[in-house]
Amino acid sequence: MTQLLLLLMALLVLGHVPTGRSEFKRCWNGQGACRAYCTKYETYMHLCSDASLCCLPYGLKPVKTEKV
């Protein structure tokens, strides 16, 4: 019975540990990064699926095209 209780506690604790990949989420076809804040060398493009900002370096920002 104590082993079952220990197993349940371990599973409960492991369920609250964030994954190691959460810091490296990518966006904008893999060229941007999902972060809480963009650096001064990046621009905000859209929101990622976890409501963080999709930050894209200024050199990769798509050029606006005019509709004719």
TrEMBL record:
Pinpoint the Beta-defensin domain residues.
26-55
Location of this chain's protein in the cell:
Secreted
Example of a GO cellular component annotation carried by this entry? extracellular region
Q: Which Pfam families match?
A: Defensin_beta_2
Signal sequence bounds: 1-15
Some GO term, biological process aspect, for this entry: which one? defense response to bacterium
Q: Which UniProt keywords apply?
A: Antibiotic, Antimicrobial, Defensin, Disulfide bond, Secreted, Signal
**Keyword Disulfide bond in record:** yes
Primary location: secreted
Where does the source fall among the domains of life? Answer: Eukaryota
Q: Which family does it belong to?
A: Belongs to the beta-defensin family.
Task: Give the protein's biological function.
Answer: Has antibacterial activity.
Q: What is this protein's name?
A: Beta-defensin
Q: Gene symbol? A: DEFB124
